[in-house]
Amino acid sequence: MMYGRRPVREAKGTILTQSVAFKAGGRLEAGCTLGPSEIAALVMAGVGEVRVAELDPHDVAQDEAARRVSAAMVPVPSDANLDVGRVMAGAVHITATCAGVVGLDTAGLTRMNRVDEGVAIATRPQFHRVAKGDVVATVRVLPYGVKRSVLSKVIEDAHDTIRVRAVLAETASLIQTVIGGDGGTAKGEAFVRARLDRLGVRLVETLVVPHREEALAEALLSARGEVVFVLTAVETIDRGDVAPEAVRQAGGVITRFGLPLDPGSRFFAGGLGAVPILGLPGCARGSAPTGVDWLVDRLLCGVSITDDDIAQMGVGGLLSPEA
C-alpha cells in the first residue's frame, strides 16, 4: 500500500486519509474513495493536493477484509445465536440474538490476533453473560487495506470461533429452609429472581420448609422447575450437612461441594434424575457479584463444568475487596 500526497487531479481511485472540510459547507471524510464527484468537489474548493492511500493489487480493502473475517467467524449466524452487523470504517460489531453466555474458541482467536497487527478481534470474556442485543465481539481492520496473504492466514483459524450459548432451562424452583418460622425469606427470593430474570428464566415457585432433611427432601421431590435452587437458613458446611443429605434422601446425588471463590465458596451442585440442584451460599441473598454467578449462568446455559475448570477459577476468584 502506498501513502503520500498527490495532486487532486491525479488522485482518482485513491483513498482519502485526511478529512477535508469545505468553507462553503460539507466535508469529505477520511476513508472515502475519491471518485469523479469527489475530485470535482475538491477542485471546485481550490484544494490542490490531498494525502491519500492506494492499494496495490495484492491488498484487500479495509471494509471487505473486515466483512470476510467476521463472516468466517460466524458462518451461520442463526446457529451461533449471533447477528453480524454492517461493516463501517473497517469495523464489524457482532451482537447476541438471545440471552446466554459467550462461548469462545480462545486458542483460535489468539492465533487470529497473532497474524498481523492490522487485524484486531476483541471479544467479551469466555462465558460472559449477555442479553439480546449486547455486543459480543468487534472485528477491526486498522489500515485501509491488508495483504491477501494476511487475510487468508487470519481466516484459517476463524471458523466458528464465537457463539452465544443460549439458556436451556425456562423455569426454576427455589426452596428456602427456615429455623423457627418463615421470616427472612423475601430477600433471598428477590435476589434469586433477579439473577434468573437476567437470563429470561422464570421462577415458578418458592417453597419454604423447616431446616430439616426430611422436609427439604420432600420439597425437592415436589419441585416443578427445570432447575432447583436451594437456599438454606444455615450455610452448608460439608457434604454431610442438611441440604446435601436431603438431596440424597430424595434419591439424588451431590456432584460438587465448595468453590475456590470468595464470596461464594459454600456452594454445592447435584441432581435429582435429570433435574439439576444448585445449593446457594448465603451471599446469594445480596446483589453484589459472587462466585455463584460464575457457575449458575454457565449451568443454566448447558455448559459442562469440570473439577479442573473449578480449580482454575481460584486464580482471580477473590471477588470481595473486603476479604
Q: What is the compact description of this entry?
A:
The protein is α+β, with helices and mostly antiparallel strands.
The assigned CATH architecture of the largest domain is 3-Layer(aba) Sandwich
**What best-fitting shape do the alpha-carbon axes yield?**
elongated
Q: Per DSSP, what share of the residues sits in E-state strands of 2 or more residues?
A: 25-35%
The CATH C-level name of the largest domain is: Alpha Beta
Class based on secondary structure composition and strand pairing: alpha+beta
Quote the average pLDDT.
94
Order of helical and strand elements: EEEEHEEHHEEEHEEEEHEEHEHEHEEEHH
What fold name stands as the CATH topology of the largest domain?
Molybdenum Cofactor Biosythetic Enzyme, Chain A
Describe the strand arrangement of the main beta sheet, using strand numbers. 16-15-17-20-19-18
Model description:
It is a single chain. The protein has helices at 36-44, 62-73, 77-80, 106-115, 148-156, 186-197, 213-222, 242-249, 291-300, 307-313, and strands at 2-7, 15-16, 20-21, 27-28, 49-54, 59-61, 82-84, 91-96, 100-104, 119-123, 129-130, 135-141, 145-147, 162-166, 171-178, 202-210, 227-231, 253-257, 268-272, 275-280. The protein has 323 residues and is an alpha+beta fold. The chain folds into 3 domains: 2-54, Molybdopterin biosynthesis moea protein, domain 2 (Alpha-Beta Complex), CATH 3.90.105; 59-165, Pyrimidine nucleoside phosphorylase-like, C-terminal domain (Aldehyde Oxidoreductase, domain 3, Alpha-Beta Complex), CATH 3.90.1170; 171-313, Molybdenum Cofactor Biosythetic Enzyme, Chain A, CATH 3.40.980. A hairpin with a 5-residue loop joins strand 3 and strand 4. The longest helix has 12 residues, at 62-73. The mean pLDDT is 94.
